[in-house]
Amino acid sequence: MGKVKIKNLKKNFDDLEVLKDINLEVKEQEVICIIGASGSGKSTLLRCINALEEASSGTIEVDGNDITKADGNINKYRQNIGMVFQQFNLFPHMTVLKNISFAPVALKLKTKEEAEETALKLLRRVDLEEKANVYPEQLSGGQQQRVAIARALAMNPDVMLFDEPTSALDPEMVGEVLNVMKQLAKDGMTMIVVTHEMGFAREVADRVIFIDEGFIVEEGPPSEIFGNPKNQRTINFLNKVL
Amino acid sequence: MSIPALIVQYWPRLIAGLGLTVEITIISLILAGILGMVFGLLSVSKRKSLRAIALVYVDIVRGTPLLVQAFFIYFGIPAALGIQSDPVVSGVITLSLNAGGYLAEIVRGGIESISRGQMEAARSLGLPYGMAMRSVILPQAIRTMTPALINQCIITLKDTSLLSVIGVTELTQTGRLIIANNYQSFEVWAIVAMMYFIIIMILSKISKRIERKMSYGKSKN
Question: CB-CB: which of A52, A76, A152 is closest to B120?
Answer without folding.
Answer: A52
